[in-house]
Amino acid sequence: MPDELVLYTNPMSRGRIARWMLEETGQPYKMEVLDYASTMKGAAYLAINPMGKVPALRHGDMVVTEAAAICAYLADAFPQARLAPPPGDRLRAPYYRWLFFAAGPIEAAASNKAMGFAVPPERERMMGYGNFAHVMDVLEAAVSQGPYLVGDSFTAADLYVGSQIGFGMMFGTIEKRPAFEQYWQRISGRPACKRANELDEAKAAELKKAAG
């Protein structure tokens, strides 16, 4: 089918973000689960995403990779879900700002922390995020300004930023500040998030059982 949506993922990956986004759109989709050690690096999937990483989304004959890009794409592809301010709306400014702040500074800072790397103070100007503490302070201020990041409604920016916060607190790369916990509790209670989580948990359990 020309408009078929297919999510390439693994339940223990950032593919969970894309799954949640798909559930928010309310659109039917198929899922192809890939294994880290085999199919994710196989020729068939590398033709879809040469990075050999998940998630990837195929929509008809078009492919989108990178979780933030998938969120932005789906929000625009299915405007009836109201997951982004409409084109031309000035609220696109904070929408893009926070979506890509999470994909850039937050992702880089949290990943470096997980690897035990701290930027030497004299080198902070060379890093897009400066230092980890400053990124966290900016993030805390952003999620403390209101129930959502953009206007008075939930958007894909909340989904992506919230996912970074939720995963970060789970794995210890983002500290459990009250503002982060309150924000994550608020958005993770959405029905689409719960459905996506249940589906991924069930698939993870299935894979674990199959592996013995």
Overall geometry comes to globular
What is the number of E strands?
A: 4
- CA-based gyration radius: 17 Å
Instruction: Write the H/E string, N to C.
Output: EHEHEEHHHHHH
Weakly predicted, low-confidence segments: none
Structural class: alpha+beta
- As laid out across the biggest beta sheet, the strand order is 2-1-3-4
**Number of helices in the DSSP assignment:** 8
Percentage of residues in strands: 5-15%
Largest sheet: 4 strands, mixed
Residue share in helix = 40-55%
Mean pLDDT: 95
What can you tell me about this protein's structure?
- With 212 residues, this protein is of the alpha+beta class.
- Helices cover 52% and strands 8% of the residues.
- The protein has 8 helices and 4 strands, in the order βαβαββαααααα.
- It has helices at 15-25, 43-46, 67-77, 92-114, 132-144, 156-171, 178-188, 191-211; strands at 5-9, 30-33, 56-59, 62-65.
- Strands 2-1-3-4 form a 4-stranded mixed β-sheet, covered by helices on one side.
- A hairpin with a 2-residue loop joins strand 3 and strand 4 (62-65).
- Helix 4 packs antiparallel against helix 5, helix 4 packs parallel to helix 6 and helix 6 packs across helix 7.
- The longest helix is centred in the middle third of the chain and has 23 residues, at 92-114.
- The radius of gyration is 17 Å and the shape is globular.
